[in-house]
Amino acid sequence: MKPKKILNLPLAILALFCCYTAMGQAKKTQPKQHYDVAAFLYPAYATGDPRLRPFWPLGIGEWETVTNMQERYPGHYWNRKPLWGTVNEADPAVMSMEINQAVKHGVNVFIFDWYWYDGRPFMETTLDNGFLKADNVDQMKFYLMWANHDVVNTWDTRLNKYNENNVIWAGKVSRAEFEKICKRNIEKYFKLPQYYKIDGKPVFMIYDLPQLIDGLGGVEQAVDALKWFKNETKKAGFPGLDLQLTMWSINVNYSGFDGSKTKNPENAFVKKLGFTSATHYQFAHFVNVNDDYMNIMEGVKKEWARIDTTFELTYYPHISVGWDNSPRTGSSAVVKNNTPANFEKALRAAKAYADAHPKQAPLITLNSWNEWTETSYLQPDNVYGYGYLEAVKRVFVDDK
């Protein structure tokens, strides 16, 4: 009977009824705002990787630095313990658990710190044997940040106390080595369905621009090499490459670039090299971190605004959990009051930045998933439990 009543209504009223019905259905089915929350992942917490043994002889990676902190510095204030234990992140079962926890709390992308030294990859087992072999890998995306810095004694706590800073492995690579790296990453990683892409373009981040330029022979040579990299990515079937810059002073103030003919040399330099996007890796790169967290955030927001008006590339907002690398060195600048509650306020600021830039991908980067020895991690510990992960969940999962 009800359908007949509707059909007997005047056409105008029937049209109005249908309109409201459609609006109601649209409201019910309208997708929620989606954010790509990407946490940097430091792949040094692996068991069984022989190339890690020279730095951490116990065979558990940099967990060794975490667990023997009190032995090296008795009574030191830093006494963190992982609630999950000293897990082997190169184990697919462990990584499956971590993926579940990440996705549950709103982290849906891992940015793997990726290394290449002495003509071969370094610390790649966490990605290859752990993440990519996890049974739920399809739940997350990943991309690479090429951490092309020199390796000195920082990782080896037996030696770093002497402050020798001798170079063990150089981060510079030649053009031939660069091409080898790029071709390998295109074939091995970019083509995977889990690799994070923006508008179909694989995202690839470079950490240390001076090292890249010096290894390739200069600015012009680097421009040519990066252009070649983009073309190779297109040849592989992608619409292009989203070349992402780690935004910090050493990467935008390169002394070998002549910016005298432009009013904005930083932008001209980055544009010449072909970078299309940028984010930060750590607050410690651009603000005084020996301060209160909320004071730091004021400086962070000012830097976001400066980048927004200075550069033509796309900037994705970054939030660091904290900073304190005393597990490696015994002393450090220390972020104060970086509680989960204050971290949540920072996440909301990053979310507001993303919302204010609707034409770009809703990508927000976090430092980090597991930087224990720099005290900037989301993983649960004996101090705040799951507090940082719950903060991410409240902002990006619960409060949409």
Automatic annotation (TrEMBL):
Top-rank taxon: Bacteria
Signal peptide location: 1-24
UniProt feature coiled coil, ranges: none
InterPro entries: WbsX
UniProt keywords, alphabetically: Signal
Regions crossing the membrane: none
Protein name per the record: Glycoside hydrolase family 99-like domain-containing protein
Organism per entry: Mucilaginibacter gynuensis
